[in-house]
Amino acid sequence: MRSHPHRLAAPVAGAVPLALALALLATGCEASTTPTATDDTFASVRFTLGARGDIQVAGTSRTAVTRAGDRTVTGGRAYPFDRPPGKLLVVLRHWPSGVRAARDGVRLMPPPDDAAIESAYLVDTGDWALAELDGHPVQWLRRDTIRVDTTKAGAVGRTHLTLSGPRGSRPGRVTPPDARACDGVDPAVNRYVVLPEVESGAAVPEVLARLRERCLDVQYVSMPGGGHRGTVRSIEIPVAGHTAPVAELPPTDDSPAEGRLPGDKILTDPSRPARVLVTR
Predict the structure, then answer these.
(1) C-alpha closest to that of 249 among 224, 232, 227
(2) Is 154 within 8 Å of 101 (Cβ atoms)?
């Protein structure tokens, strides 16, 4: 239980002197119900970063954030950071500070020989937290992991990930994701999945649910243009092998769609997260 160093002592004889009570009534004073400075309820924290990192952490609850390390990753693969029970894991992917980011940010996937950096943070949110990407709500989280990829953000793009507490009200119709059906999935073994139906402009929670049903790890990418802000622009599901790195849904005119349409079964690489491209 939280300590209360400023708790008032019990009144002597069980009553306040009459003169003092009348003075309080005359001035309209009441007992304060404002939380004290010892209230450590999670409020908000904001991560700001570019394609080359430069990560900044701000917000009233920034003391709830702990660094969990940086790891080099290649071929779009994800590093399996440990997430202690009760904590929220934030993984931010970017290029090393000495690497010049693509000016247009049009690459679908980093080439296998390019090394990106994943910077991880543990956040003690206590309970539910709403994740917003560039000001747009994408997901309620609790004891979970959220990944953001800025390697396609371009040389000058900045991405903002904000985590906010529920401010005393439990988010409606939200339950922790049930990962029991995915317990047997080995991230080192390729497996087949059926591609979901995805439309541009779809709500992020709808698409996220379809991907999690297929036990796919998810990574968010914020991209300018292409539809209504805060909606899904497209998704990229990793395909095993180097000749066809991703299955893009909905298919574009300049990408081969054979064997990569909704309902098709593909061999996917679980070590590479599926990307949800969100319109900024």
Answers:
(1) 232
(2) yes
Segment among 63-77, 161-175, 207-221 with least mean pLDDT: 161-175
pLDDT tens digit sequence for 74-117: 888 999 999 999 999 999 999 998 665 555 554 545 555 678 99
CA-wise closest residue to 61 among 79, 46, 78, 76: 46
Q: How many CA atoms lie within 13 A of 222 on its CB side?
A: 25
End-to-end CA distance of the chain: 42
CB 149 within 8 A of CB 90: no
Residue 67: how many other CB atoms lie within 10 Å: 11
Identify the top-confidence range among 9-13, 88-92, 180-184: 88-92
Query: What is the Cα–Cα distance from 278 to 148, expressed in whole angstroms?
Result: 11
> Which two structure tokens, joined as six digits, stand for 24?
């309080």
Cβ(187)–Cβ(77) below 8 Å: no
For residues 100 and 139, the answer to whether their CB atoms sit within 8 Å is no
CB 256 within 8 A of CB 245: no
At 54 the three-state DSSP class reads strand
Q: Which of 91, 176, 186, 113 is nearest to 140 (CA)?
A: 176
For residue 67, what is the DSSP state? E
Question: In whole angstroms, how large is the CA radius of gyration of the chain?
Answer: 24
pLDDT band at 15 (very low <50, low <70, confident <90, very high): very low
Q: Is the pTM of this model over 0.70?
A: yes
Residue 62 confidence class, pLDDT cut points 50, 70, 90: very high
Contact 278, 232 (CB under 8 A): yes
